[in-house]
Input
Amino acid sequence: MTNRACLNLAVALLAVSPWLSPQARAEPQTFEIDQDHLSIVFLVDHVGYARQFGQFLEAGGSFVYDESENHLSGGEITISADSVFTNHDRRDRHLRNDDFLAVDDHPEIRFVVTDHRPIDANQHHVDGELTLLGQTRPVTLDVTLNKAADYPFGHGDYTLGLSARTTIKRSDWGMTYGLEGGLVGDEIELWFELEAIAD
Output
């Protein structure tokens, strides 16, 4: 094979296989979610006038990902239910009581990965089980891998940047307050923005 032919072959392989980059990891690796760069946001309709934003301020988790095989083999995120925050004290207290999150009886919300269905190198469907109010139901996250590289400052470790979205119906978990009369929407849109650091 001529030098030109070898060069053309190398260029073609790089074009069709993004995980051949020198930084790609060649075995399953555990990634810890960086709590300093984790945002969990929810949106819900309020009486049809507008959607209310809220957050959960305390959460953590990890997952196992084989970058060379583009395969997620497990993971979970655990959220502190009483860390709910909507920038309104009275509303936040209401969200913590038995009408909504019942945090005294159910202090944690948990998502556990059960399956991974990659679309391509950057777009993924991640199936899992969401436990809320003591009940567990299947949920699918639409996940985008934004970046995978050594961190450019600070800890400097290999880091993945991820965005995830899903929509659930809170009534599926028995949370029905405000549904009658359309005071509070049933559908909850969930956004996850996170960075995860290789162990």
In short: Confidence is low (pLDDT under 50) at residues 3-22. The chain has one domain: 22-198.
